[in-house]
Amino acid sequence: MYIHPPQPRQDQRPTNAARSSTEASAIAPSMVALWHACWAVAASVTAFAAQSFDVLQHNVLAALLLMALPGVCGVVLMVRESVGIRFTLMAVWLLASVAAAGLTGGATGALPGLLVMPLAAGIALDHPRIGDDRLTRVGIAALILPLISGLISTLLNGSTAQPPVLAAVSGLLALAATAAAIRLTWGERQRRLILAENDSLRVEAVLNSQPGLTLLLEPSGRAAAAWGSPPPSVSIAALVDQGLIAAIHAPDRPAVAAALQRALAGQTAEVMFSPRVALDRRVIMILRRFDHDGGHALLIAQAFDGTAQFARELGLESARVEAEAQSAGKTRFLANMSHELRTPLNAVIGFADIMRERLFGPLPERYAGYAESIHQAGGHLLDLINDVLDLSKIEAERYELALETFDARDPISAAVALIRVQADEKGVELAPVLPSNPLSVVADARALKQMALNLLSNAVKFTPAGGSVTLTLDGIGPCLELVVSDTGVGVAPEDLQRIGRPFEQAGGADQKAQGTGLGLSLVRSLTELHGGRMSIDSTLGEGTAVMVRLPVVPVASDDTATPEPEAAPEAPVEVRERVEA
Question: Would you say 274 and 281 are in contact if contact means Cβ atoms under 8 Å apart?
Answer without folding.
Answer: yes
